[in-house]
Amino acid sequence: MQQLSLRFIWLPWFPILLIGLFYSPAVTAKPPNILLIVSEDNGPELGCYGDPYARTPHLDQLAEKGVRFENAFVPYSVCSPSRACFLTGKYPHQNGQIGLATHKFALYSKETPNFVTLLKKQGYHTGLIGKLHVNPETAFPFDYRAIRAANFNRREPVTAYASHAAKFFTQAKDQPWFLSVNFPDAHLPFIKKVNGRPAQPLSADDVKPLPWVGVSTPRLREQVANYYNCLARLDTGVGLLLNELDQAGETENTLIFYIGDHGAQFPRGKGSVYEGGLRVPLIVSWRGNTQPGLVRKELTSTLDLLPTALAAAGMQIPEDLPGRDLKPLFTDERVTNWREYIFGFTTGSFPRNCYIQHSLRDTRFKLISNPRPGTDNLIADSYLDQSHPHFVISGATAADQKTISPQVKQAFTRWSQPPRYELYDLQQDPYEWNNLADDPMFAATKSRLINTLTDWQQQTRDPFLDPVNLEAFVKEQLDHRDMKYRKQKDFRWSYLDSFANWRAEE
């Protein structure tokens, strides 16, 4: 009788007890935090990618704990467009940021949905440490900001990024959070040592240039050595940041992305649509979800970051995002129906570097489309012509070019004045030295890739598919090579309206 009475006493309370258990912290996990680590101007020159000169133990360890993507790419190999792409999840011609923010290029609309606005709707506390470099900044209403400048002079030490992150973790309290940390290394100037880091820097005698550069002189090797010294300092910063994450007790429930914003600033790298400019490191670590030490070789894009983050946060992925949720690639399960092609693009990013190019690659072949063949590629000139007003110290001087092979000389000439199409067999020629566009044996491949590129431009409403838009854009750029617009407060590029209107037409 006593047992029966107790049963009737507990029975009304049983549903309430179940509800309490279901919603208790032990049963209902909060959405994952999202940490996006972005480094400047570096491709996959890391130890975990097999680079012989890189000293990157912390990033290598992150790869051991997560998934390393062997074939990851950005849609545009200059800072502002690249960042706008992964923040909005859209191609440059879709979001409008087709050049540098410092040169008045911007999103078509400040209302463009992005990492910040979308996650804030889901209750995320949001933060940015380091530069944003996308216009307008008001489109990204972060709750927390620190080290707003680019910090290319490294006056803010690498330790400052971790210190600000620790403050952010404290502020977030019980909210899920999204934090983007943007390190200045390895952007020019390539500084050998800052505040004692790295302790034992490399010198010119310790390294060889990146294999796609094609130039090896003591002067250039010194730049390469200091590039690797920057990467070592970056790696220290990542280690300090991840340590703060661990100290805050947040590692277990944090989805971590690490990317470079585009390739290194050497000839045929940053600013180009060659592999040296577009291919980047991508490491994803999320305990309990990513298979430790896994390497995936599928074609992936920084456009995939936003869909992946939204899905992890339990949100619906907007239909107009061209990227994909990476989660199916987090284990070694076979994945079918993944993307076949990766697209790249450049406008040169500002008037004195103006040149329009598209690229398209599959797992083997790479097409480059130059819609204005026979005209000077001003991007190439900034690396190969010392009279260019923005010639970079990591470019190839006239003296450097006297040492190059005939094959490299031919490639530099092609880069400087491109033909209508370039075609490369990346399986046989990974550094894109031999143009096969006029080889009859590859005519079918060339035709297939041209048709695929045209279809993609039509499907994504690329304004540069229309010759009228293309020529108007180039003319306006070349007419403003004096760069007086930078001092005009209300200056606005005409494409911001004309391209937006063209894209809206049926």
From TrEMBL:
Entry EC number(s): 3.1.6.1
Pfam families: Sulfatase
Gene3D superfamilies referenced in this protein's UniProt entry, alphabetically: Alkaline Phosphatase, subunit A
Ranges for domain Sulfatase N-terminal: 32-315
Database matches in CDD domains: SGSH
Keywords: Calcium, Hydrolase, Metal-binding
SUPFAM superfamilies membership: Alkaline phosphatase-like
Family the entry assigns: Belongs to the sulfatase family.
Name by which UniProt lists this protein: Arylsulfatase
